[in-house]
Amino acid sequence: MHDSGKIIGGLVIFVAGLTFPFWFTLAAGQADYRPDPERPTGQKHCVEDTAYMKAWHMDLLDHWRDEVVRNGQRVYLPDKRWPCSRDEDCTGGFCQQGICRYDMSLTNNCLECHRSRARFCDRCHDYLEVKPYCWDCHLAPEEE
Amino acid sequence: MDESRRNFLKVAGSAAVGAAWAVPVVKALAGGGKTQTWPGGRAARRWALVIDVNKCSSPAVQRACAEACHRVHNVPHVPEHKHEVKWIWSTGFENAFPEQAHHDYRRDLLENPVMVLCNHCERPPCVRVCPTQATFKRPDGVVMMDMHRCIGCRYCIAACPYGARSFNWEDPLKYLDHPRPDYPHRTKGVVEKCTFCTERLARGLEPACVEAAVRVAGPGAMVFGDVGDPNSAVSQLLRTKTTLRRKPGLGTEPHVFYVV
Fold first, then answer.
1. What is the pLDDT, as a whole number, of residue B240?
2. Chain B residues whose C-beta sits inside 8 Å of any chain A C-beta
3. Residue A69's closest chain B neighbor by CA?
C-alpha cells in the first residue's frame, strides 16, 4: 500500500462530487422545496380526484387523445360521478342526467380552469425536468 | 419446503392465467371513465360534400371559404410558394378535371377556378402508404390525420393524386398572427390536410367552408351530408344533378362531388 493517501483522497473527492447536489440544496436551504402549481379559484373539483390527476394526468390525456383523434369520441364520463344540476356546475363540460360529463380536450377543457401553462403545468414539469411535447401544437389561453 | 415439480407447475400455471386476466382488468380500471359522443353531434354512415361549381364560381366565395377554413384550423399563410400550407384552395377547371375538360369545353366552366380540397376517398392511397397509420380512414369515411403519429416521411404527399396534402417545411407558428387556442396548430415536419371539420361535426355544426359558402353565395352553394342515407340532401342532389368527381379513372372514389 504505497498510494493509500492518493486513493483515499481521490475517493473523498469522488464521493463529495457525487453527493454535491444533495449538500448544495441543503446549504441553499431548499431541501424541503416542493413545486407549487397555481390552483384555479372558484372550482370545486377536477374531472377526477386530485390524487388521481396528480399521478395519472398524463395517461388520462393520452387516453383522451386516442379517443378523440382515432375513435371520434369526445365526451368523458368520469369514474368519479360528480353530481350536478346545470352545465355551470361542470366547467369544460356539461350536465346530463345529474352527472358531469367533460370535453376530452386539453385546450378546451383542462386549460379552461388551469389558464396559465407557466403557473400550473410548467411548475411541476420544470422541477421534474420533464418536457412534454403537448406545447409544440397546443396553446394555453394565457401564454407568458 | 418439499416442493414437487407437479406442484410448482400448478402454481406457476395458475399465476400466469391470473396475470393474463388481471392485466386488462387493471388497465381498464386505470384508464378511468367511459367515453361518449357529444349530444347533438352529427354522425353519418358516409360523409360527402357536394360543391355547386356555378354558385361557387366567384373569387369572393372561394376566398371566403378558404379564409373561414384556414382561420378556424390555424392554417398558416406562408409567403414562400414552395412551402405553402392549404386545406382548401382554388385551381383552374382544367387542372381539377384533366380527364373531363378539353379545349372546347363549356366556356363558363373553363373560365372560372373551382375549389378543391381533400376528397376523403373511399380507397385513399395516402392511407395505404402511411407507415405509421398516422393517416387513416374513419368508419364514417373521413380520412383523418393523427398529428401525434406523423413522422413527416411525406409518402402520403407522393401518393395523393389530388395534391391535397401540405408539408410543414417551417414552424407554422411563425406565420400565424393570432393562433386560436381552441384548435391545435401543427409543428414543423408534419403533413396536414382537410379533416371535413370533424371537430365541428361533433358539435353539430356544418364544416367551416360550407357555412361560409352558404353565407356568401346562398343556400345550396355547398351541401354536406350523409350519402349512406338515401333521403339526405346530398343523396338527392347526386341522384338528380349532373356531378363530376376528380380523376375518376384512378379508382380512389372521391367523396367530394361537383355539380356542373
1. 97
2. 30-39, 41, 136, 138, 140, 144, 146-148, 179-187, 198, 202
3. B146
* Minimal C-alpha gap between B38 and chain A (Å): 6
Query: B32 falls in which pLDDT band (50, 70, 90)?
Result: low
Contacts 24+ apart (CB under 8 A), B211-220: B211/B68, B212/B61, B212/B64, B212/B65, B212/B67, B212/B68, B212/B69, B213/B51, B213/B55, B213/B56, B213/B61, B213/B64, B213/B65, B215/B64, B216/B60, B216/B61, B216/B64, B217/B55, B217/B56, B217/B58, B217/B61, B218/B55, B220/B52, B220/B55
Taking CB atoms and an 8 Å limit, are B36 and A139 in contact across chains?
no
Q: Is B212 inside any structural domain?
A: yes
Residue B38: inside a domain: no
The average pLDDT across A74-90 equals 90
Q: Could A136 and B187 be called an inter-chain contact, meaning their C-beta atoms sit closer than 8 Å? A: yes
- Rounded to the nearest integer, the mean pLDDT of chain B is 93
Of B36, B180, B185, the CB nearest to A73: B36
This model of the complex carries an ipTM of 0.81
Q: Do B181 and A111 touch (CB under 8 A)?
A: yes
Tell if the CB–CB gap between B33 and A77 is shorter than 8 Å: yes
Q: Is the model more confident about B125 or about A93?
A: B125
Reported as type and span, the H/E element at residue A56 is helix A50-69
**CB atoms A136 and B140 under 8 Å:** no
pTM: 0.84
Which residues form the domain of B109? 47-259
CATH no. for residue B87?
3.30.70.20
Where residue B27 falls among pLDDT bands split at 50, 70, 90?
A: low
Chain A residue with Cα closest to B134: A70
Domain assignment present for residue B229? The answer is: yes
